[in-house]
TrEMBL record:
Designated name of the protein: Threonyl/alanyl tRNA synthetase SAD domain-containing protein
SMART domains found in the cross-reference section: tRNA_SAD
Pfam families recorded: tRNA_SAD
GO BP terms: tRNA aminoacylation
Gene Ontology molecular function, alphabetical: aminoacyl-tRNA ligase activity; ATP binding; RNA binding
Domain Threonyl/alanyl tRNA synthetase SAD: 246-292
GO CC, alphabetical: mitochondrion
Amino acid sequence: MATSCRSLALLRIFLAKSKPAARCIHTESKVTNSLVREKRNALFESEKQRQLSLVSRIEKIEVQYKGQPEDCTLVMNKNLSTPFNCAMHIEEVVMSRSVLALVNGEPWDMHRPLKESCQLHFMHFEDENPTLANEAFWRSCSFMLGYVLETAFKEQHYVQLCSFPVPNVRSGSFVYDADLGLEDWRPNSIELNTLSRTGFKLFFKEYRFERLKVDASVALNMFADNRFKTTQIPSIASRSESGSTVTVYRMGDHVDITGGPLISNTGQLGRFNVTAFHDIESSSYGPLTRVQGTALPVQLPMHYWSYENIIAKRAQKLNTAPVPELKQAQPLQSSAS
């Protein structure tokens, strides 16, 4: 509750001073990653609370759980209860190891509210077919890599995250392409280790990945200080009769755009290494830095020698995922809700 109140207070400050702040940013170049992160987090919390306020009546739904230790039927709250809440009622080991849920066969975030009566399964990294869980983990690692890049550098270096490619575990590395605000810099082994430690510390935080679908105008406000995201939002927004929406996620105070799904929380991270920086060129965005990393889930331990000398070294090679390019955008429509 204290965090929510602080976020809302910050939002009121940003809204009250939006015009003077804009002048400061453009005339004195005072924009910093910490200031922008506070703004995004406050906007995320405000929109989350607004959407929760729309649930004026609590309705019950039946959730048919299929899996270990036994099948059961749970009575939960529509638009409020999540698969994680269901797992809490089943067994602690189910709650801690579950990476994703399958809701009526559809991949579903563990902390995403359930909309109707449904059939529920849970997925983890040791399933017979862990493909969806592995892809969610790789996608989440790219998300966490964005957090590392926005928080690891001194304030005078303004990092602008561009995008990360569709997860491909076979590539050997997850990726985030970004403008680091640094010229002719490549990290040495000590600096790579420092970046890796920044990412691995998330394991101890156990931050949840929160999903929120917002109006495109809200997303544009969140990422107004990122030249890449502001050009991408019109082209990636989902359009319907009610308007245009964008899916954003929050991990701690880090907010970013991705369609998901992501894993349950950062406590499911076992190893995390930032392995390489490569120069790439985009015809839409110009020169970018492709930052790569590799990781393992906590459920899948590996001997340190094999991990460092095979997995991590392989992840140093340039990941050949497509360079980010801007798709043709369509006019945005404001959501009615």
